[in-house]
Amino acid sequence: MILIFSGIKDGREIASDLAGSGYETILSTLTEHGVAMVEEMDNLETIYGQMDVEKIEEFIGERNVQAVVDATHPYAEIISNNIEKACSNAGTRLFKYIRPEIPLGEKVNVYEDIESLCVNLKTTEGNILLTTGSRKLEEYTKHLPVERLYVRVLPIRKSMEKVWDLGFKSNQIIAMQGPFSEEFNREIYKQCHIEHMVLKNSGPNGGTRQKIESALESNIETHLLDRPIADGEWFEDKKTLIKNIMDYLEELK
After folding, report:
1. 235: closest CA among 74, 84, 89, 51?
2. pLDDT in tens, 187-203
3. Which of 7, 9, 68, 179 has a CB 3.0–4.6 Å from the CB of 29, allowing a cystine?
4. pLDDT at position 35
5. Domain ranges of the chain
């Protein structure tokens, strides 16, 4: 049995390839929305919900999981740490997949954390578009006036309730499932009179390139929150990862 943690497209593709090759696979996502994005197929089970170290370790034992794959978002530090600790406690092999980064040009401002990013934005004027999701959104509103901010979030209840609770008005909320084309991004910048855009380096499937290129073409200042430094061994190529998982499981037979 293979247990995959992921809420991104890459993780769904990894799960589909393994299940399609005959391996019993469980894909765990944080939200019900993540499960809804998965196509039903043989050998693939989906579950959702938040899991701490104890719950992950317990699940590994109950389902006789032989290999765990951490294919979560590159910025999902808490769940990645929980997965690593649980696998260590359970003595279960962990494979880590990290989306490849998009090369950045000199015109992109890069920051190590949200606070330093906001400190710089405080010295500027104009509307700011946050494309970093609803998680940690309160860290931006703590430093910046909500009136300057526009947010792009998933159209799910949890995200919408959070942005409303933080004081965002309806005309400051773009609730849509990405990624989007450069043309679509440019239209958003134009309609919302955006002068600054904030993003993460989410990789090719995360729409990072389209966000950056459309912003630079529109003369919009681009601010990128850098990825956390990944520890240990990981894979950036899905095919190589899948082959390593299969080889490992064959060795166990």
Report:
1. 74
2. 999 999 999 999 998 87
3. 7
4. 85
5. 2-100+231-252, 108-225
89-93 contact pairs (CB < 8 A, 24+): 89/53, 89/57, 90/57, 90/60, 90/61, 92/60, 92/65, 92/66, 92/67, 92/68, 93/66, 93/67, 93/68, 93/248
Same fold? 2-100+231-252, 108-225: yes
Token reading at 105: 């040009």
- What superfamily in CATH does domain 108-225 come from? HUPs (3.40.50.620)
Question: pTM for this one?
Answer: 0.77
Superfamily of domain 2-100+231-252: NAD(P)-binding Rossmann-like Domain (3.40.50.720)
Strand ranges, E, within 2-140: 2-5, 25-29, 44-48, 67-70, 93-96, 108-111, 127-130
Q: Which pLDDT score is estimated for 228?
A: 82
Instruction: Count the neighbouring beta carbons within 10 Å of the beta carbon of residue 65.
Output: 19
